[in-house]
Each structure stands twice: as structure tokens, then as C-alpha cells.
What does this fold into?
Amino acid sequence: IKKINHLNYFERPKKLIIFREDHLTREICVNLIKCGVSPVFFKLPKLKLHPISDEYFSQLKKRIIPIVKKHINQFVIHGVGENLLNLYFSELRKKLDLQNTYEKYFNRYLSKFKEKLLCISSYPSLLLTISLSNVLRKKGLKLISTQHGVNREINEFYEYGSCYFENSISDLLFVKNEEAKRISDLSVFKYGITKCVGAPKQMYLKIKQKKNRKVFFISTRISTGNLNNPSGYNTDLERVKNEIFLTKNILNRLPYKVKFKAYPFEDYYVDMDPVHKVVENCDNIDLIYTTRDLQDYLREIEMIITSRATSTLSLCLMSNIPVVFINYSREYSVKQKLISKFSDSLFYFEFYSENFEKKILSFLNKPRELILKNLEKKRKNRKKLIEKYFCNTKIGSAGKYASRYIIENNFFKKIKCKD
It folds into this structure.
């Protein structure tokens, strides 16, 4: 979408300030531009830090320290708690100083615009966009957002991360399905309204398949420094052990080569990922460690093996490629009420079940033609599952529908307060 920045005729009375992008925000932006809106691609400059006052922080610390202490004492042995308490408030001070810096900057930045404004961002629950939202509310301006990924609809542990829902920050959230709208609207942290518009066209692209396609294992494992919220109960070590087990005892024992696509995420550890070490030592598996999107590889894939109830699964299902799904009941687990629907719609295996290794190896050793035949039997159930829990396909153009809703409901506003 940034390529359109080279066009020089966007001098119009409405400006759309674009922050973090995803497929749906791009589609919305293109349709808004067609409706006479001028895009502004935000780029954060290097800022001088503006700390909050010591007095304010002391008052805040005094008020919340009993709550933090009580929480720490529930989980940390005596003698370590004081150090952890100090670390918490040290990190809190850094975040508040940075938030104050961002808010001062956005006050100046937004005041430069004379036109009607609207801000858009995917996943706004980051410090930068939270700070932006605070300033926008004071100035009478709006922030709209798009659903980050299919998760709350299918993940048993979604409530642990409900404070990160996009409608906790934005005035308007566009989601892909009615179930996402229902759950978002029930959040205790809800601030903005939610509108279901379906999925962007890029999720419906018909991909021409190449010959000699491969089986891909799509990893959804991330090492987060044991910051388990909101994924569940497993630690990084347990996640690593589980994936090493899959690599050695399943993937490396198959009668065909497997491509192992690692999850592109910042690693919190300085040493090489233990799973990647194992993969590189396996004769039957090739490691793909890149930031390239999964969508770039779909034409090369004959069958997908993946795990965890994350947004990655939505792209796998929409590709119409056979999906072998491994559920971990202790993290990113499929909701209990959906297990039967998943079993009827794709090839479902529970990692912690009895004889898991034997069951999945037996299945993966079947002739590919038989697997495809069994997949076809699940087609109707899979369509129902996708329609309700992944993306509503009945609406049409999500970007066009969303942009029309934005304009008809006057989300573009002029600044009310110039401070």
C-alpha cells in the first residue's frame, strides 16, 4: 500500500493516518482512498525522553504497592519478593516515562493537521498506539482497528489476554466473524464498538499449486521468557521439549521429506533455539527460518502439520490444503466445545492423549490419495467451522464494506482541542 505514496494528487479534505498494517487495514485504506481520502503513513521519529514527575510516580507506587506485593507473595518464595517488587516498579517507571513521551509528541504531531482526521492500526494494544489513543480521545478524534488474528473464537485461554483486545483501545474494531464480535463485545475491558466485515480478499486468493509439493510443519511455538500470559500453563522449556519430541519421533520418521517452518518471532534467549538445533541434525527435515509470511509458501505445500489454536490456523484452513492439527490441552488449546467440530472438519490429534505417537504416525503414513479422500468427506463441516469461527464469507468485500461504514458514520473528525 505504501507504493501509492508516490502519487501526488492526494490533497483532500480528509486524512487517514496509517500506523501498523495488516491485510484488512490495507484493504480498508485502499477503499477509503477511492472515496477521496488522503493517506498519511506514520513514521515515528527519534524522540527525546520526557519522564513523568517523581512526585506522581511516588503517589502511584504508594497506591498500588499493596496489590503488587500480595500478588508476588502468592507465587514467589520469601527473600526473592523484594527484588522482584523493585524490578516491577523499575519497569513500570520506564513504560510510564515512554508513554508520557509519546503522548507529548502526539499532541504536537496531530495539532499540525487542519483537515478531518482518522487513525487506523492493526493490533493497537502496544504502548505507542495506547498513547495515541489517549491523545485522540482528548482531541475528539477516532482510532479504528482490525482484528489481529483468529484466536479468541477458538482458544480455551483467550480470556487471559482479553485486556489486549483491540476494542479495549480503539473506538471501532472490524472483526472477521460474528463469534469474534460476540466475544469482543462481552469483554470487561471493552471501550469501542465492534463490527463484523468478514476477511480481506487476500485470504481468498486461489493459489496455483506447483508440482512436487512438500509436507510442511508450521510451527506456532514461541519462546517468551516464560511470560506465559495469555498462552496457558506450559513454560518455554516444556514447549521446547514437546516440539523436540515431535521433531525426533514424528517428523523425522516419516517416509517423505518435511519442511519445518519456524515461527518468525523475536527470541528472548541469546543461544540458538534448541528445536532448530535438533531440526538441523535431522536427515529428513529442512529448516525454514525466515520472516517471510506463510502465504508465500502455500503454493509449495501439499499437506500442513501444525498445532495450537492461533491465527496461523485460519490461513491454513482457508488455503484448502489438508491440515493435520495437533492440540496442546495446556496451552493455546482448542475450546472444549469445539473439539468435536475440529475433529469433524480437519485431522485432529491431542498431544497428551494415550498412544498419540502411534496414532499420528499411522495416519501420516497413509497414502496421500486416501488422506485427500478423507478430507473431502469433511468439506461441509469445515465450511461451517470456517464460516462461524474464522471468517464470514457472506458479506463480500470486507474493505469496501468497512470503508463505507466509516464514511457513513462520520468517523473522520476535526480536532476539538488544540492543547
